[in-house]
Every structure is written in structure tokens, then in C-alpha cells.
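Q: Here's a chain of 387 amino acids. Please give me its 3D structure as C-alpha cells.
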Amino acid sequence: MKPNEQLVNEVLQRGVEEVIDKEHLRGSLLAGKKLRIKFGIDPTSPNLHLGHAVVLRKLKQFQELGHKIVFVIGDYTARIGDPTGVSKTRQELTQKEVERNMKHYVLQAQKILDFKKVEVCWNSRWLRKLEGKKMFELLSMVSVNQMLERDDFGQRISNHRSVRIHEFLYPILQGYDSVVLKTDIEVGGKDQLLNMLMGRTLMEKFNLKPQDILTVGLLEGTDGVRKMSKSYGNDIAFGEKPNDMFGKIMSVPDNLVHKYFELLTDIKPESLKKISSFEQKKKLAGAVVLFIHSKKDADVARDYFEKVFSKKEIPEDLEIIEAATGEKWTDILVRAKLSSSKSEASRLIKGGGLSLDGVKIARPDEIVLAGGVLKIGKHKFIRLKFK
């Protein structure tokens, strides 16, 4: 059954940065051909955030059109580390770390994709066979000039930071994945464009039809500046509790709300014109909590937020954490997993983001002397008790 033109246009336009070759891909989709859609992931972390959801939602659209999602787990390439957008060489992962991270990744990605219909491949299956002559033949297909055209490599060289030879291999090996799998399309964030173009280059060298490419936009985090990342402390993780997720989305800068709608929901822009920016945020937060958790969670999170924010009520059923005599605020925040590190906890306190019974905590190294209701950021409350 051929898909309708409006649906195809939605797949090719909403949240999309670039398509290569757009007319060829559009024709393939309208013809109703079953395509192989490649998405590669290096499981460098066990946790997904809403930035990952952008590409997963695009893959879901292709899946709903009946196409095959080929999920390439970069257990081999993760050992090298993708150099894209980084200013220094990534730390090498162990095979055990890769396997553990991927297990968690798939469990979370299932919130969006139907993995019963996904073809899962581990690229070590073919990349570990690239030895001697085969590897030299592959490397001879790419020039050093091509690699140095990358901004990330150029910047590191100009800043007198090293670029290791094995990092040159990463995009070549990612491209070779496409050769082995004979994919029709590769989908990824716009920062992956050069890596995905390598797939087209190598497929042509191997006399294969080059894959089309579709890139999606990158989602800025809660700081409104840098792309969402756990390392920046601006992420909204899949594992966030519904109330916390709702509150974090409400803290997203106003100028990013429409971008979040476009990349994370199916809601039409015209439906937002007649409601206030505050109501738009609540609608956005509810829609995101709905697809990551459930409708019930979204309704409860909205009620919780309105009590805390609009009615200035402190919820009765607060999570309780205990503090020991002599503990500092930074120690408590890290131990209770309210901050990922002491430096992050310190930044929160210095920025005025922590208060006890309405009184702001001034110093990160201050000793905790009393219990009470602890407010973290704008919307999160915890009840603090001494052991």
C-alpha cells in the first residue's frame, strides 16, 4: 500500500534539517518501496534524554510507514569514540561497559520504537574481520584531505590539541557499516552529517547505490544555549520521574518552546496560536511526559505542577531523604542523586537554586544543621530529615 503524499511530506519536513538526495528519497517513499533505514548508536552512556528522542521519533515515523529500522550498535566503534564535536580524544570504553550501556539504551528506546520490528546489528561482527589487506583497501578509498575538512579536527589542530590516527578511522568504519548492511537511508542528528556522507562515499566505491541521508535538528537543553547533554547538566532524561520531567520542561526558555513542539510532538503549530505561552509550556510538558511515561503520569504531573507553581502549595507526599550530622549540602545532593557531582551541586547552590523552608542556602560547603522542606531548582521539593 502506497503512503499518501501528506504523510511523506511530514516525514521529510517536520524537524528535518537536510535530506540528501531529497527527490530520490521522496520518490522511493511515494512508490511504497520497503526501505532499510539505518541508525547507528555508540552506547557511550546508559541513559537517554530528550535530545535522543528527536531521532527516535523520526525513526518511528519511518517504522509506521512500514520500513525496516536497522539499529546498528557500535560496540566496535564505541571502543574508538566518535570524534564529532569533541575538543579532545574520547576515553576508550571496555566491552563490558558497552554491553551494559546498550542494555539500558534498548530498554529506554522501546518507549518510542517497536523493537519487535527492529533489526539489531552489532558492528563488531564485520569490523573485527577488517585486517591486513582488507583494511588497507578500505583506507585507500579516503584521503587525509577529506578528514581534515572536518571542523572538529581542524579546531583541535589549530588549538594544538592532538588528533589521534585511530580517530580518523571512526567515520570510515561508520561508513563501512552502510556498505555491509546495504542501507537505503541513514538517519541521525545534523552533527553526524559528515560521518553519514562517508557512507555514501564508500558505497559508491563498492559499486553500491549510495544511501540517502536525513538529518534532524539538535535540541538545546534547559540552559537554552548548548545542545542537550548530561555532561552539560542541561538534559531531561528518560529516567526522570514524571513530576520532575514536567517541571524541567516548564523551565525551558520561552524562545525554544516551538522548537520543542516541532521536534518532540505531533502537535500542529496552528493549535498553539490562541493560548498563552505559559499554557503552551504546560501542553508541551504534558505531551512529552505522555509519550515517555503515560497519560495518567502526565495528568498527575500537571496537577502537581499547578499546586506547586500556581497555588504555591507544598505537596504532602514528598520524597524523604535523611541527613547525617556533619554532612555538607553538596554531599547530600550527590548522595540523594539530586546532582550528578559535587561541582554541579555547588553551581546549583551558588546560583540560588537551593532553599530550606524558604531560606536560600548560601554556601555549598555549609554544614546541614536542620531538617525541613528542601526546594531544588524551581519546582522540585524534598523533605529532609536527620537520621
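Q: Can you summarize the key feature?
A: The two ends are 65 Å apart (CA to CA).
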